[in-house]
Automatic annotation (TrEMBL):
Residue stretches making up the Peptidase M16 C-terminal domain: 205-383, 676-852
SUPFAM superfamilies: LuxS/MPP-like metallohydrolase (SSF63411)
Classification lineage: Bacteria, Pseudomonadati, Bacteroidota, Flavobacteriia, Flavobacteriales
InterPro entries for the chain: Metalloenz_LuxS/M16, MPP/UQCRC_Complex, Pept_M16_N, Peptidase_M16_C
Ranges for domain Peptidase M16 N-terminal: 48-172, 534-647
Protein name: M16 family metallopeptidase
Superkingdom, taxonomy of origin: Bacteria
A Pfam match: Peptidase_M16
Gene3D superfamilies per the UniProt record, alphabetical: Metalloenzyme, LuxS/M16 peptidase-like (3.30.830.10)
Species of the source: Sungkyunkwania multivorans
Family affiliation: Belongs to the peptidase M16 family.
Length: 950
């Protein structure tokens, strides 16, 4: 897995404090914020950090092991990540497979991640399962190695290989990171290879390798444990000592010293990408390691070069030369070294030589013109908001505490990082530009679509990348769980059997207030004082459903253009005004609504809302910006043609809704429909459909009802209602039940499988019941699809099923990506699991479903975003204010017969169709043996090939 979602807040100007004796405080003006923690070390060397947060009855546990891919040996690349996978399988005192299966059934979530410098395991659970998580986590850390078998080893190899195929081999630009690492870091440097590693190295892993890795790195002395949430500090200390105290310390693991690199020449490489449709140029300069004093100025430099419309790279590449829809630059520092990256994914057929010349011009402009005080002020204001967003959940707090403790030796390092960032001056930024970028050597990659080498930078050398050959025979890679290991159980002083649940946590739905404005807009709010932030949005019914079939994408393009300035502000001026408030404002179109959303510090709520009002009521309709956005959209649509998952998703929608329904087309439109859209179309949509009579305002955060109403008074007076009639569409009269469709992506290492049928609307009385009924089949890692296709068979990295949410009749769908030669058996497994689901659904499944969903509700509404979603659900689907309690009561009262009726009505396999996107040369003949007749071939746009009519 990629690096976990640490919110590394090294770029903060606030004086946030982590104190061992203070309580958490905040004011509506956001002047004070402190998070208390307590740290202690067990006799075995395990460093433990505790943070109490009783705002929700949940607990987050994060364990960081200080070993990543930088500790691997030649010939065993990818091993740290592979070992992370192995650690989730078995341990001596936890039932086989429980780690992945029972935590979701307890209402929790769990995962892990590996990056160059470390590995993390983490869970968030209702507080009644806290002791159980301590049992599982401690057993994984201290008592898993004896349970590893050859069969488990071989099965997990297939899972990890599938992950690599999905993330790297079957994805556009998937090999770019590997090319860069090989040429930026010399052979033998710990960053010379990728975290995921190579397939031959993964296949070569042995049981002895696993045991050696565990013995060397997985000791308590090489780890940090963080527990955050609704805990009693004294009791938690005792629990930690009990469960983790006996774990072996392990050998001393010496810390690696920084190993920054210096290039003696610029290296230019090109690669023909089988999946890419757009040429991409990257320049990577070596910089400094994490926690180095220059990291903070480099981070700001990245923002200054490309992070705004005033940035030289944006102005040159996007506005003036019109070579790409966007560009990015950023510094990425790791434990041993750092990289400064400039990336441009250009328009189709753009010559990357031209892009490189334009980049040189942009860097020269930056050197000459520098930047204003306002630009530096904007970046620091944005980082202030990022600070609070980054610690707004207990899991993110746990991540931050764990990372800074393990890698900086100080859980409260964020305080110093804030000071260092706040101290960055214009002179510091120009100094690091001169020291690390100006005139310095770099690695440059030209990744171009297959057959378009002429687009690469002149005189670039071809990059060598090992690529897997597709094997047609699935039997050669068949795996299973095998028998459990036979071993002598480790003796412990404590009883390591499964502990009981604690007291059942009481879920308390947040208090909701409502109001309305004279212009017809409804208001919904939730007050929360956990952090000095406010999240809000205005949701306007309509969106994509008001597009025409011929000009699909108008609503989407209109919302993009409305963010490009106002009648009184240029695009750059609007962006700067938002940035100086440290706010985020975005606008987008969904299938059934248009949303303009904001996130800001509570002290800046009125000012942020004033900008939203200006955006909404005073659009600029800039012709030049319209042409730029339209071209950028066409570039993105072209790029989408390379992604097998996107191809499958778009084709499925076309099949499920038919040619006459607007939902058969994507909200962004197609290359054909977008080409005909004019600026007048956007204006007509705005004048005809944007009305407060279809709008709802939702707000969650540190702002109360009276303040919200007062802030909205101006908008209410200026935004006048109009009559808007929402359209209805004819659903297809004939389904594709029992058919199978195939789309060829030559050379695909995986097959993307979709299967489904139309089910019901979110406003249907059975909507909740169907969602409940799907949990056992496809609800995450505990679902039967995941457990069978990944855990038992090793065919995939993930599999699941869900029911989409919309007022229109929405589909039930099963989705997975499997290794190419497992396409047919995977189809057969899906057919069997869905076809026999009703017959095999038991009383035990009823109880598991209820416990899983009811307990998950304790952690489902923690963040401001989750609270905002409650309000969106109420207004969008006419739900009662207490719908959370109503839904739970409905679930509690469901019987086995109720579940079976819903399954029989909506999850009938005979009514489903199947879609496979994969390599025709090796898979089509196998798919034709599935038993659904000969596969109907489609092109990548979902159109029929040949004479067969859909």
């Amino acid at each position: 897995m990629r690096k976990p979602p640490f919110t590394f807040l090294a770029c903060i100007m606030l004086g946030i404090c982590f104190l061992s004796c203070s309580s958490e405080k905040k004011t509506e003006q956001g002047n004070t914020f402190a998070i208390d923690y307590e740290k202690f070390t067990l006799d075995n060397g395990l460093e433990v950090v505790l943070h109490k947060d009783s705002s929700d009855p949940i607990v987050a546990v994060a364990t960081v092991i200080h070993v990543g891919s930088n500790r691997e040996k030649p010939g065993r690349t990818g091993f740290a990540h592979f070992f992370e996978h192995m650690s989730f399988n078995d341990s001596e005192n936890v039932p086989r497979g429980a780690n992945r299966k029972v935590i979701p059934e307890w209402g929790g979530s769990r995962n892990g991640g590996t990056w160059s410098d470390g590995t993390i395991y983490y869970e968030v659970v209702p507080k009644d399962a806290f002791e159980k998580i301590m049992w599982i986590d401690s057993d994984r850390l201290g008592y898993m190695i004896n349970t590893v078998t050859e069969e488990a080893l071989e099965r997990e190899k297939q899972v990890v290989k599938n992950e690599k195929r999905q993330r790297v081999d079957n994805a556009p630009y998937g090999y770019t990171n590997e090319i860069i690492r090989k040429h930026l870091y010399p052979e033998g440097h710990p960053y010379n290879w990728t975290v995921i590693g190579s397939l031959p190295d993964l296949q070569a892993a042995t049981l002895e390798d696993v045991k050696e890795f565990y013995e060397q790195f997985y000791g308590a002395g090489n780890a940090t444990l963080v527990i955050a949430g609704d805990i009693d500090i004294a009791e938690t200390k005792e629990s930690v000592k009990k469960w983790f105290g006996e774990i072996r310390k392990g050998p001393e693991v010496s810390r690696l010293s920084p190993q920054p690199v210096a290039l003696t020449e610029t290296k230019s490489l090109y690669f023909e990408d089988n999946f890419a449709k757009l040429p991409e140029l990257r320049l990577v300069f070596p910089t400094v390691e994490s926690y180095h004093k220059d990291e903070y100025a480099l981070n700001i430099l990245g923002e200054l070069l490309s992070g705004s419309k005033r940035s030289p790279i944006y102005k040159t590449i996007v506005e003036e030369k019109k070579l790409a829809p966007n560009a990015s630059s950023y510094n990425r520092s790791s434990e041993l070294a750092g990289e400064f990256v400039i990336r441009v994914r250009a328009n189709a057929s753009s010559d990357l030589d031209s892009v490189k010349v334009a980049l040189d011009e942009a860097l020269k402009q930056f050197e000459t013109n520098r930047f204003s005080d306002n630009e530096l002020k904007r970046i620091k204001a944005e980082l202030e908001t990022d600070l609070y967003n980054g610690v707004s959940t207990i899991l993110n707090k746990a991540f931050q505490l764990a990372q800074d403790n393990e890698y900086a030796g100080d859980p409260s390092y964020i305080t110093k990082a804030a000071q260092l960032t706040n101290a960055v001056t214009k002179e510091d930024v120009m100094r690091v530009f001169d020291q690390y970028i100006k005139g310095k050597h770099f690695v440059m990659t030209s990744v171009v679509p297959k057959g378009q080498v002429g687009l690469a930078v002149t005189d670039a050398s071809e990059a060598a990348v090992w690529q897997e050959k597709i094997v047609a025979d699935v039997a050669s890679e068949e795996v299973s769980q095998g028998e459990e290991a036979v071993y002598e159980k480790t003796k412990t002083k404590i009883d390591r059997s499964e502990p009981d649940f604690g007291d059942l946590p009481l879920f308390k739905a947040p208090e909701i207030w409502t109001s309305s404005l004279p212009n017809g807009m409804e208001l919904y709010g939730i007050f929360s004082d956990e952090v000095p932030l406010v999240n809000f949005n205005i949701t306007i019914q309509g969106g994509h459903q008001l597009d025409t079939m011929e000009k699909s994408g108008v609503a989407n393009l209109m919302t993009d253009l409305m963010m490009e300035g106002t009648a009184n502000r240029t695009p750059a001026e609007l962006e700067e005004a938002i940035g100086l408030l440290g706010a985020n404002i975005n606008m987008f179109s969904g299938r059934e609504n248009i949303v303009i959303a904001g996130n800001c510090l509570a002290k800046n709520f009125e000012a942020t809302l004033a900008l939203v009002e200006e955006i909404l009521l005073q659009p600029r309709w800039d012709k030049q910006e319209f042409e730029r956005l339209k071209k950028a959209l066409q570039t993105r649509l072209k790029g989408r043609e390379a992604n097998p998952s996107a191809i499958a998703s778009l084709a499925f929608d076309k099949l499920i809704y038919g040619d006459d329904h607007i939902f058969s087309l994507p909200t962004s439109g197609t290359l054909e429909t977008v080409s005909s859209i004019s600026l007048e179309d956007l204006k007509n949509y705005y004048s005809g459909y944007i009305s407060p009579s279809l709008a709802s305002f939702h707000v969650a955060g540190f702002v109360k009802k009276d303040r919200v109403e007062k802030a909205l008074s101006g908008l209410s007076e200026k935004w006048k209602p109009k009559a808007v009639e929402l359209p209805s569409f004819q659903l297809p009269r004939e389904s594709h039940a029992g058919k199978i469709f195939f789309i060829d992506v030559p050379g695909a290492k995986q097959s993307v499988i979709y299967a489904g049928k139309l089910a019901l609307s979110a406003t249907d009385a059975n909507a909740n019941n169907l969602r409940f009924a799907n949990e056992i089949l496809g609800g995450g890692s505990s679902g039967r699809l995941f457990q069978t296709l990944r855990i038992e068979k090793g065919y995939t990295y993930g599999a699941g099923s869900r029911i989409r949410t919309s007022k229109e009749i929405a589909p039930f769908l099963v989705r997975t990506s499997v290794r190419a030669n497992a396409t047919l058996p995977s189809l057969q497994i899906i057919e069997d699991l869905v076809g026999n689901y009703g017959k095999t659904f038991s009383e035990a499944d009823v109880e598991t479903t209820k416990e899983k969903i009811l307990k998950a509700s304790t952690r489902a509404y923690e963040s401001l975003g989750q609270k905002l979603d409650i309000l969106n659900q109420i207004s969008s689907y006419s739900k009662p204010l207490n719908y959370l309690e109503v839904d739970q009561k409905e679930l509690v009262e469901m019987s086995l017969e109720d579940f079976k009726k819903v399954i029989a009505r909506y999850l009938n396999e005979d009514e489903m169709f199947y879609l496979v996107v994969g390599d025709k040369a090796t898979q089509l003949d196998m798919v034709n043996k599935f038993g659904k007749g000969e596969a109907i071939e489609l092109d990548i746009y979902g159109n029929s090939l040949g004479a067969v009519q859909l």
